[in-house]
Structures are given as structure tokens and as C-alpha cells.
Amino acid sequence: MSDETSVEPAARGDRIAGAVLVVLALGAWWHAQSFVAGFMQPVGPGVFPQLVSVPLGLLALYLMIRPGINHRWPSGASLCRQLGVLLVLGTYAAFIEPWGFVPTTLVTAVLLLRLFGANWRQALPYGVLLGVSLYLLFEFALGIPLPDMPGLGV
Amino acid sequence: MDVLDFLVHGFAVALQPQHLLLAMAGCIIGTLIGALPGLGPVNGVALLIPLAFNFGLEPTAALILLVSVYYGCMYGGRISSIVLNIPGDEPAMMTTLDGYPMAQAGRGGEALGLSAVASFVGAIIATIGLTLFAPLLVKVAIRFGPAEYFALFVLAFATIGGVTSGSFTKSFIAAALGLLLGTVGIDPATSVARYTFGWYELYDGIDYIVALVGLFAVSECLLFLERDPDQATASLKVGSAVPGMRRAIACAPTIGRGSIIGFISGVLPGAGASLGSFLAYVLEKRWWGTRGRFGTGDPRGVAAPEAGNNAAAGGALIPMLSLGIPGSGTTAILLALLLSMNITPGPLLFEQQPDMVWGLVAALFIGNLMLLVLNIPLVGLFAKMLQAPAWFLMPMVTLVAFVGIFSLNNSAFDLYMMLAFGVLGYLLRKLDIPTVPVVLGLLLGGQMEFNLRRAMSISGGDWSILWSSGITIGIYAFAVSLLLAGLAYAMVIKKRLE
């Protein structure tokens, strides 16, 4: 894989993942019991999920006992930038409809460029360029109606 | 009609101006995506799917575009391997071993030219293989019943360890997780809502496209944020690619062997292009022994893996088109595209949509030729584009994916879902759990369950129907042997790493 910057034994990550997956498998198995079987159907809606959750649970248990390798987890600065990107994109998703495509996309593009390491003097012009080209591409070249700005026709 | 007639008909479809234009665009975009470190074929094709939908392309055109991107990525992956010593994608990993030393010695142009020809030959051999073998497989598969199909799905999942070179446990965990995620939504047979927890947005199930753009593209973007900002963007002098073409004639036997090995590993379910290039390189090295200078800039070390991975890319299309079971991550995404357009690949596709299948095959031949022509003179340009600043490239890619997904349904829920899958994909990749099996599980789970239930209602609830025919037993035996081979392969890799 392309992200093999560093591989180190990290039992904890695998153990936590294993535990989460065991709980997920148990939950899925238990919840599948509530699916009502149809009339004259030898295999109801609950069978296949249960069939899948058994190996999932067993393998996850094995992962807890014999954890493998993990890639290096991010440190403070990268983690902040990652959370920042998620926050920006999440906010974008929340505001794209009420606020309209153009303003939200412009703000998002500038902030993303900034988070990916551009300085303000690069982020502002290129962010505006990116936002405007996306608008032109989707609205006119592809002919897709994008959410308008409230009160304006754009 | 026999294959040749179909193929002629296919060329008539593929040579339509719109299709030619799309193939051309796909080849260029694909080469670029493949060349950019980190953006592999899986991510590249995943990103373009929403765009293909937005263009309102009909299925044949969309498929031609994406398959050209797919082949283009395979060509492009080698450029950054050779010029920067960073594989553009996973299958291009082996190309760095001899390609970069050649570039350091000032023979970068030769390596690029040689690998372009090797890629071309590999891809053409695989496309010929596709033309010949896919119809044969279809003839067998047309007799398959639900029990046989269920066995095929078991085969696909049993061999999934080969898709990724990681741990077997983790690959199977990923597949099971994908299968479980695939059951979310209204059960089509009984209309029971499964794991929806009252969210009506989940009633239709998890949208494949949303999930896979999240798993691949968004997670890639998150991973990118923790890489070193300026990894070797030093500009090496590339030089002319012409001497590489002459070198290719000398390397013809190597290219031939690499192509055949790659093709076979591509056809095997779950093996894919990485295995193809790995085997082609290792076997070629073994073949020459001490007579080769592998690892220090031997041209054959560039020719073999490039022929191998391009041949595997073509081979992987065979199970996807003729059985509906993808052999690699990228073909899984192509399958997602087809399913989203209400087209189910499989033997019936060849009967009902010959235009599409044979148009696609013809487009592959044409696309390859375009790629070769593009790659010889333009390789310096592509190498230069690798130096575009990442701070612009990554936000652009992210936003195109984001707006593309949003415009599919104009739904903010899809965006949140994509972000959630992005975080999931990121965590899985950090844990070294492969993401491709998750997608395969998500994609194939519905069909797998459907066939299981149909088989069971035929037998009236008798489970032994699943292993009652000769074909099913054969498939299970094949699955077990591939599983063992995969285990052996994993051990070889482990030894090699130590």
C-alpha cells in the first residue's frame, strides 16, 4: 500500500478494534433474531446476517488474542489538521443547502487549501479559482442544479 | 455469430466519436491519476464515478470512460515509480526496484519508453485473452444455478487474502464487515427493515458509490495530511523515450513471460495486479539468476512487472464481466458502477447487451493504442505534472468528490455518510485492515444472500443443496486450493520482507 511510511507492532490498536468488532458482531447477531421470517421461506431475513456475524465475531476475537501490525498513528499536529478537514467538510455538508452552493464552496475551498499547507496568499486566490471552476463545471458544463443562495438567483 | 463478428461489431460501437473522445479523455485522466503518488487506480476510478453519473452518460459510454481511466492508471503508475521512486499505485511498487536506479543513471527516458511498450504488450495480450476466454467462461456459467453462484461467491471471498498482501485474519474481517454492512436496509424478499434503526435514509441500503468514495478517496485525503509535505519532488532529467523502444525488442521474451504470468494472476478471483507484477518480477529475476543485474537498474526489471501488472488489469475484467465477481479493487468499483445503473454483469450480460460488452472490449484495444501513443512523446509532460503542488491537488480532488456525491441525490445525508465511511476507511488502513474486501462484501452481499435463499427455497430448506452438484464441489475445491496457495504466497512475502 502506498501509505507504508512506517509499520510498527501496535497491539493496542488491534485489540481495541477486535473488541469493537466483537461487540458489533454480537449486536448484529442478537438484533437479527428480531427480523420476522416471511411465510414459506426456509431462509428468513435474519439468517444471512447471523451467518456473517459468526465468523466476524470469531475472527475479531482472534485479532484481540493475536494482534498484528498497525501503521503509525498520527501525532498532535496531523491529528488537528485531520479533525480540521473533517470539521470543514462536515460544516460544508450542513450549510450547502441553506446557504447555497457558491458561498459555502468558496469558504470551504479556501479553508481546505489552508489546511493542506498553502499560505493565505496562495489559499485565497486559488480557493476562489477552485470554487468558481467547480460552480461553472457542475452548474453549466454538467447542467446540474445546485442549491441557490437564499434571496439571490445564483 | 462467433467472436470475430462480435468484435467487429464492438469496434463499430467503440469507434463512435463520442466513445472515442471519452476513451481519449479517460486515458489522459487515468495516466495522470496513476502517476500522482497516492492516488491509485481504485481511488481514481472511485472519484470519477460521480462525475460519470453527472454527465448523464449511458452505461456503455460510462464504462468505456472508466475502463480507459483504469488502463490509464496502470500506465501512469510507473511514471512516479521511475522518476520519483514513489510508486504511483500499489501494482507499480516492483517497478521502483530497477526503474529508479535507471533514472538515477540518466536512463529515465529509456526506462519510461521501455515500460510503456511493456505495458502496451501486457495489456494487449490480456485484452486478447479477455476476447477469447470470457465467452468460454460465459458458456459454462450460463448453466449455473443459485447453488453454483453461492459457491462462486464463497470462492471470491475465500481468495480475498490475495487482493492485499496483508494479514489473512484482517482480510476476512474486512470481508465479513462488508457483508454485514451490505445487509443494511429493507430486505428485498420480505420487506423487513434490517439494521436501519428507524432512519428512513437507510431503507434503500448503503449506497455503494457513497461508501466507496468515502472509503477510498476521503480516507486517502486524511492519510495525506500526515505525510511529509515535500517528499522528493526533485526534477530528474527524463530524456528521450525512444531508446527504450529499441530496448523493448531486446526484452521481448521478458515482456512475453511477464504478460502471461500477469494475465493468469489477474483472472484468478481476488488476486489482482499487485500479485501479477510481483510474480512477474520475482520469476524473471529467478530466470536470469546471477546473469541479471536486478535491483541496480536492469531494464528487464522494469519490463517484467509493467507487462505483468497491465496484463493482470485486463485479466481481472474477465471474472467481473462474465461472472459478476470482481478480481480486484478497481474492477469492484466498475461493478459498483454497473449495479448502480441497474446492469448485472454475468453470463446474461453477454446475451442481452452484446453492444456494451464488445464495445468495451474494442474500446480496450483502442485505448491501449492511444495510451502507447500518448506515453511515448508526452511522458516528459506527465513527469512534469507530478510537480504540481499537493496543497492545490488534494483539496481539488476532495471537493470534486464531495460535490459529485452531493449532486447525485442532492442529499446532505449522503455527505455525512461519505465522511463516516472516510473515517472508517482511515481507521481500517491505519489498523492495516484492507478496505477492498469491505467494498467487495458490500457489493456482493446482496447477490450472495439472494442466491443462498433461492437455492434454499428450491430445496425446501435442505442445506445440502449447496454442495450437491459436481460444479459446486469443484468450485469449493478450487477455493480451498487457492486459499492454501494464498497462504503460501503470504509466507513468501513475509520471508522476503525479513
Offer a concise description of the structure.
The complex is a heterodimer of chains A (154) and B (498). With 154 residues, chain A is mainly alpha-helical. Chain A has helices spanning 11-32, 47-65, 76-99, 101-115, 120-141, and strands spanning 7-9, 69-71.
* Rg calc of chain B: 22 Å
Q: What is the multimeric organization of the chains shown?
A: heterodimer
Alpha carbon gap, first and last residue of chain A: 43 Å
Based on secondary structure, the structural category of chain A is: mainly alpha
InterPro entries (chain A): DUF1468 (IPR009936)
Transmembrane segments (chain A): 16-32, 47-65, 77-95, 101-117, 124-144
Domain DUF1468 (chain A): 16-147
Keywords (chain A): Membrane, Transmembrane, Transmembrane helix
Describe the structure in your own words.
The complex is a heterodimer of chains A (154) and B (498). Chain A has 154 residues and is mainly α. Chain A folds into two domains: 7-71; 76-141. Chain A is 66% helix and 4% strand. Chain A has helices spanning 11-32, 47-65, 76-99, 101-115, 120-141; strands spanning 7-9, 69-71. The longest helix of chain A has 24 residues, at 76-99. The model of chain A is unreliable at 1-8 (pLDDT under 50). Chain B has 498 residues and is mainly alpha-helical. Chain B has 21 helices and two strands. In chain B, strands 1-2 form a two-stranded antiparallel ribbon. At the A-B interface, helix 1, helix 2, strand 2, helix 3 and helix 4 of A face helix 7, helix 8, helix 18, helix 19 and helix 20 of B. Chain A: Pfam families: TctB. Chain A: Residues 16-147 form the DUF1468 domain.
